[in-house]
Amino acid sequence: MNRFFTNYFLTHWTNVFFGAQLDIRGLVRLAKKVNAGLDLVPWEDWTTVKLNNVPLGSVLPDMGKKSDGTNWDPFAPGMNDPALFDRVHGAIDLALDRAAAAQMKYVIVFSGMATLESRSAQWQRIVRGYIEVKNGQKESLIQKAERLKIVLMMEMLNSVGDPKTWQGHPGILANNYQEMVESCVLPIGSAWFRTAFDAYHVAMMRSDPVKMVELYPKVIGYVHLAGIVMNGIDTYAPTNRGPLNAVDQIIDIPGLMQTLAQHVPPTTPILLEHLPHADNYVDVADDIEASIALCESWRK
Questions:
Q1: Each residue of 101-130: b (16+ CB within 10 Å) or e?
Q2: Is this prediction's pTM over 0.90?
Q3: CATH no. for 58-207
Q4: To 5 degrees, how large is the angle CA 78–CA 225–CA 228?
Q5: Using CA atoms, how far apart are residues 130 and 190, in angstroms rounded to an integer?
Q6: Domain with CATH 3.20.20.150 in the chain
Q7: Are 24 and 49 in contact (CB under 8 A)?
Q8: Phi–psi pair at 14, nearest 5 degrees
Q9: Consecutive 10-residue averages of pLDDT for the chain (300 residues)
Q10: DSSP label of 300
């Protein structure tokens, strides 16, 4: 099947921890079967992926460990928080180096958890973190990204959901796509700083993904897709991130993809980030192929 969007990716975390729970070699095999790349792969597995000629998508900054020895979630610390500013700035700086060494084009970044400071002050600190040259360095993060030809992409996350299943990320600063674009992406004003447009997170926060694409078409650098499965319940509280083609899935995937096709290049990466219901390799592969076919079905 000829595809309009030429760069589909499968995500590491949804296929390692859920469904068939494939290891990295199983993921490589799956990606080759469905003609896709792999994304959000831990950097220690990059060599395995590259040796098998499977494209790698984006880099997640490694935020290191907390004082109790556990790892920071990549989305939790942010330059909005003065106490974590240096940690996050350094992690993004390192992520740019790692991406360049692996010839990857994208680094995913996050706002961090909101503090008690005003939201505008927090966003302003984030903007300064990217455009100002930090003491002891020769270039800003944006200048470095431009030099290395790597796009930094900020992703919003949903902060509401079902506490028993997918409660989202309560407390995250970037829980509104329009606010994130207006307060951070546009003020930075660089082609090297865009958004990872995640239709699942946008819709979970009761925004219309199609409208957001139409309002801010030029800031989208990457697209993430997952289904919101309602299971007959009139609430934005899915039992899981469902398949794109589930009967009770509420995002209009063909309509969204058609709108995206009108506004973003066909080379824009499309990441399939839904949780597979299947628990074996063959059925997972069939699900991925069906998901890609659904994404392309608007062309019929």
A1: ebebbbbbbbbbbbbeeeeeebbbbbbebb
A2: yes
A3: 3.20.20.150
A4: 100
A5: 10
A6: 58-207
A7: yes
A8: -75, -25
A9: 94 90 96 97 94 96 93 95 97 97 96 98 98 94 98 95 77 98 98 97 94 98 91 49 84 97 97 89 94 94
A10: -
